[in-house]
Write a structure and sequence with these properties.
The structure holds two protein chains of two kinds. By secondary structure, chain A is of the alpha/beta class. Chain A is built from seven helices and twelve strands. In chain A, strands 6-7-8-3-9-10 form a six-stranded mixed β-sheet, sandwiched between helices. In chain A, a hairpin with a 2-residue loop joins strand 11 and strand 12 (254-259). In chain A, helix 2 (100-109) crosses helix 3 (120-132) and helix 3 (120-132) packs across helix 4 (148-160). The longest helix of chain A has 18 residues, at 178-195. Chain B is mainly α. Chain B is built from twelve helices and no strands. Classes of the chains: A alpha/beta, B mainly alpha. Chain A binds chain B through residues 59-61, 78-79, 81, 83, 85-87, 90, 92, 95-99, 102-103, 106, 109-116, 134-138, 140-142, 149-150, 153, 155, 158-159, 179-180, 183, and chain B through 29, 141-146, 148-149, 152-153, 155-162, 202-204, 206-212, 257, 281, 283-285.
């Protein structure tokens, strides 16, 4: 394999003309986009738009009916160490005998046989990751007793410790209060920049990500539009994507996507923020 | 208490407790307590069937335990796991009722499987018990990390190539082997309590997974040894003492945990009052 001279960030993820059919139902069709190293990509769409399905396709857990996925230039496969994944929710009993740092350690070698052998090197790596997600204060607490935001940080460290090139976070901001939400966004943005990881964050509300996203992949009506925020989040592009007239309204730097005037009352489910159109 | 025939009882019960403590750790971690109840009880029907056709009851136990594990695992991703477990148990118990009705003679050796024959273990039965126990221990230690990852964060484990379905089958087969090994020694009811209560109690005493497994083994051994000794002295059944000691240890564990929790909260409050300005990390530590 020859490496071309590095001119810019490497392409980490390429999704090409992907179609997904689940139990006879077309979920998404003709989805294409790319992500570069260090990019912070927002995967935006309402609940049920197919964001989680798209992530599962990228992870290799769902086989696309058509199209292909390349991760760092290679066809995607299961057990891809290049991808770190943080699911939307983890359900742990508060009394599970497992410290936050034990779960981070399992991110490094959890797929291997046998019990983990303590080593100074392993401990140092775990400590480094815990520091990177600012979790030192609760690293020795039972992981099930932590708050949603704290568990989110631990799961990010768990995903990041195997040094993936691509980090997928499924709705990391759901169930977080506003201050934890801001902290998590800031943390993920700094990780993308510092570790040169391509980060894909799915969310139904793009507003918390507006200042940090370098690229938007907007999922609606089974298709996607991708590009910079200015290219995608426009009345024209989103109307074409939804197949209906929608209005994109700027309110003090926050974006509202609402159904257009003539369709008023027909497409309440497409409001991304739950507020009625003006 | 340490006469020749009792030595076999001590040895067999020690092996069973050791393995129950190890496998019980994952039983509780995976929320598989119901399977730990269903497999020994359902496998009892296999022993009844085996005595009907005149083959070894241990073989019957093993076949039914494995069959139960396969039913639970294969239904498990279609229906809820507790329903799958219940269905497997219902099928096996139904067969057990049939087999018992067809046995013309009274079969005390089948009924003894309910409560075990801890004092009647022969030294020839010790070897297969030890061998099956060793296979269980090797399987659990071999699968330790994937099993743990899949039990705690199944989605993430799946994304790393650890199949939830295969992990479930693997674990249930180990549980089936524990059943086959332990039921002739301690009976269906006691293996259930040894799989669940020591491991559940251990959680109150540590927050480290390795230590929790160690404490689980220690409690399982303590429970069995104490139960045999007290039963020998009092003449009351071992099963009563296993249950009672399990309950006492669990209650003591909860009391200890909540007492420590209380002490920690008081400490934290004092800390918070002492530092007037919150640290930048305060939000995450509180």
């Amino acid at each position: 394999m020859t490496h071309p001279p590095e001119t810019g960030p490497e392409e980490i993820l390429r999704v090409e003309a992907v179609r997904v059919v689940l139990s006879g139902r077309l979920i998404i069709d003709d989805v294409s986009f790319t992500c570069l190293g260090g990019e912070f990509v927002g995967l935006i769409g309402s609940n049920g738009a197919g964001k989680t399905t798209l992530m599962r396709v990228i992870l290799g857990l769902v086989r696309p009916a058509a199209g292909r996925i390349l991760v760092a230039g290679e066809p995607r496969s299961r057990r891809n160490p290049l991808i770190g994944y943080v699911p939307q929710k983890i359900n742990l009993d508060p009394d599970v005998p497992m410290r936050a740092r034990d779960l981070v350690g399992l991110g490094l070698d959890g797929h291997r046989f046998g019990p983990p052998w303590p080593s100074a090197k392993r401990a140092a790596r775990v400590d480094e990751m815990i520091e990177a997600v600012d979790a030192t204060g609760f690293a020795d607490s039972r992981v099930g007793s932590l708050s949603g935001g704290e568990q989110q940080r631990i799961m990010i460290a768990h995903a990041l410790i195997s040094r993936p090139r691509l980090l997928l976070l499924d709705e990391p901001l759901a169930n977080l209060d506003i201050s934890s939400e801001r902290e998590v966004v800031k943390l993920v943005a700094s990780i993308a920049a510092r570790h040169k990881v391509a980060v894909v964050v799915s969310t139904h509300d793009m507003n918390p990500l507006l200042t940090v996203m370098s690229r938007v992949v907007y999922v609606a009506a089974g298709r996607v539009a991708s590009g910079t925020t200015d290219e995608v989040v426009t009345t024209r592009t989103l109307s074409r994507l939804y197949g209906h007239d929608v209005d994109v309204i700027d309110v003090n730097g926050r974006v509202l996507v609402v159904a257009g005037r003539e369709n008023e009352g027909l497409h309440h489910h497409e409001y991304d923020n739950g507020e009625p159109p003006p | 208490m340490f006469s020749a025939f009792m030595i076999n009882a001590w040895e067999a019960s020690t092996i069973v407790a050791l393995i129950a403590g190890i496998v019980g750790f994952f039983t509780v971690l995976r929320g598989a307590s119901f399977a730990a109840h269903a497999l020994p009880n359902g496998a009892f029907a296999g022993a009844a069937g085996a005595s009907l056709v005149g083959i070894s009851t241990v073989l019957g136990l093993g076949v039914f335990a494995v069959m139960g594990a396969i039913i639970i695992a294969s239904l498990g991703h279609r229906v809820r796991s507790d329903v799958a477990t219940a269905l497997a148990m219902v099928v096996m118990l139904g067969l057990g009722a049939l087999f018992l009705s067809m046995t013309t003679e009274y079969a005390p050796q089948i009924y003894s499987l309910l409560f075990g024959e801890i004092l009647g273990i022969s030294s020839t039965a010790l070897v297969p018990t030890a061998a099956m126990g060793a296979v269980c221990a090797v399987a659990i230690f071999g699968l330790y990390r994937p099993l743990m990852l899949s039990s705690l964060v199944p989605d993430t484990a799946e994304a790393r190539g650890i199949s939830a379905v295969r992990t479930e089958i693997g674990f249930l087969l180990v549980l089936a082997l524990v059943t086959t090994m332990a039921v002739p020694v301690v009976g269906t009811l006691l293996i259930f309590s040894l799989l669940v209560s020591p491991a559940a109690t251990a959680r109150s005493f540590t927050k480290r997974p390795g230590a929790a497994m160690g404490i689980s083994v220690a409690f399982a051994l303590t429970t069995v040894w104490a139960a045999i000794a007290v039963s020998y002295v009092t003449g009351l059944p071992i099963g009563f003492f296993v249950g009672a000691i399990g309950a006492v240890l669990y209650s003591a564990g909860r009391a200890w945990a909540s007492w420590r929790q209380g002490a920690r909260t008081t400490h934290r409050k004092a800390d918070r009052m002492a530092s007037s300005s919150p640290s930048p990390r305060g939000r995450w530590t509180s």
